[in-house]
Amino acid sequence: MASFVAIHRAGNSMLAVTLSKVRLPLLSYPVLLKTLKLSPFPSRALAARCLSTSSAAPNFQRPPPSDPRAFPHDRSPKPGHWPPQNHERPPFNHRLPVDNRPPMDYGRPPVNGPPPPAAPAAAPPPGPIDLMALCREGKVKEAVEFLSQGVRPDPPTFFALVASCSDPKLLEELKKIHEFFIRSPFRADLQINNKLLEMYAKCGSMNDARRVFDGMPDRNMDSWHLMIDGYASNAQGDDGLQMFEQMRRVGVRPDSRTFLVVLAACASAEAVEEGFIHFDSMHKEYGIAPGIEHYIGIIEVLGKSGHLNEAVEFIDKLPFDPPAAIWEALKNLARTQGDVDLEDQVEELLISIDPSKVNPEKIPTPPAKRRPGINMLDGRNKLGEYRLPPKIEKKPVKEQVYVPDTRYVLHDIDQEAKEQALLYHSERLAIAYGLISTPARTPLRIIKNLRICGDCHNAIKIMSKIVGRELIVRDNKRFHHFKDGKCSCGDYW
Predict the structure, then answer these.
(1) What percent of the chain has pLDDT over 70?
(2) Dist CA 368 CA 378 (whole Å)
(3) What is the residue range of the signal peptide feature (predicted)?
């Protein structure tokens, strides 16, 4: 007990209370306070002593150093010597949880066990290489979707994207690619602009091609050639000839290839006289010697205009022996015009020159049946039919709006069934669906894998005049632009 009193006198009240709990477990707390004469809140007295920074603080008496019971180890600093300061961060002590499980270390793999599975790497954003791969696979629509997601192609990728849209069914994708190209920093690239001209011509949209041509900051000879040839291939030869005149007005000197596309435009427009004028101007004005391909161009101008006999006379007057290429061009023109006799004659002559031109799949033409001559006379919504022997029979016919031409029905059925069969041709059904599913005054584009028949050609001309639209039909031969009751081919279907 004396030791407790000594500790209390030394000012260590809290230690006295702690020791009392250890050495006097049976002594109650109030008795202990009364015995030691302590305050019920010793922490306040202790706090008052801690705030004192002077050795002369009240109620504080340092025990003599000779008393080893008060301070068994004197740790007070000596004058002029400060205790070493440790500014290092103490090591982190991983305390065990209540259930004695080891601490989780998320930065290291577990010691005993397989490593955690690696997180899947994020897919890199698509780039120009991905767009080039899609172009090679023919997936143009997927490539356009990537463009809408923010992919920025480089000039070679733009060129490949445009070149992939040669099919007329991809016209809308070509327009979207053109929009992204206009907003790109490469919009003045000459090669890509020329490729746009070519693809728009192949898709049958010469209006878009003309807008690209007019907006080009720079043009070369290929730009003019692509526009003239595009008009010729779309049965708009007159516009192609106007483009050639514009080319000469701006001072561009034509070359031998220029006259090839000009002759193609003359053949499309059935401009025979103008074709010969340009053919003669090659040597007289520009000093260009015509080649075999230019002579073939003149033959096509004559043949596509229906002057096959004049084409044969032109071949006979050539200053050299006509090669197989010229006879082959004449044979194709005779087949297109339906002159079977001339086709057979030219084919025999062609085989004698080049035996490799034999067509083993050709079916021999049966002899033509002799039919009575029929003449049709139109007048006041009536149609009179005249046969040989001359016996006039007047039959009431339908109004002069659309008369089915049943010659193009090859099935052996009666007349009424033939007229009904003509109504179900695929191009007519496609136009009917387009008229009811598209806005008014918008052009329709029909793509057909076979040649359009003459009856449908006449019917579509009437449709274009009634509905007031431009109907563009692409068969396996050429583009037909029907507008205001006329076709751009000049009825050369």
Answers:
(1) 65
(2) 28
(3) none
Closest CA to 394 of 407, 381, 409: 381
**For 383, which DSSP code?**
E
Place of tokens 């003509």: 422
Q: Which of 40-54, 138-152, 176-190, 452-466 has the least mean pLDDT?
A: 40-54
Q: Looking at this protein, which amino acid is placed at residue 149?
A: Q
Instruction: Take residue 356 and report the two structure tokens written for it.
Output: 């490799």
pLDDT tens digits, one per residue of 150-174: 888 899 999 999 999 998 889 999 9
Q: According to DSSP H, which parts of 91-202 are helical? A: 128-137, 140-148, 155-163, 171-182, 190-202
* Tokens 């483009």 sit on residue: 243
Counting Cα atoms < 13 Å in the Cβ hemisphere of 43 gives 0
Count other C-beta atoms under 10 Å from residue 229's C-beta.
22
- CB of 223 closer than 8 Å to CB of 193: yes
Cα 425 from Cα 153, distance rounded (Å): 43
Torsion of CA 284, 286, 290, 295, to 10 degrees: -70
Question: How large is the angle between the packed helices 221-233 and 190-202, nearest 10 degrees?
Answer: 10
**% of the chain residues with pLDDT over 90:** 36
Specify whether the CB–CB gap between 456 and 429 falls below 8 A.
no
Count, residues in the chain: 493
Tell me which of 360 and 27 has the higher pLDDT. 360
389 upstream amide cis, omega within 30 of 0:
yes
Going by DSSP bridges, is the β-strand pair 471-474/444-447 parallel, antiparallel, or unpaired?
parallel
Q: Is 231 within 8 Å of 240 (Cβ atoms)?
A: yes
Q: Using the Cα atoms of residue 21, residue 24, residue 30 and residue 32 in order, give the sign of their dihedral.
A: negative
pTM, rounded to two decimals? 0.57
60: left (phi over 0), alpha (psi -120 to 50) or beta: beta
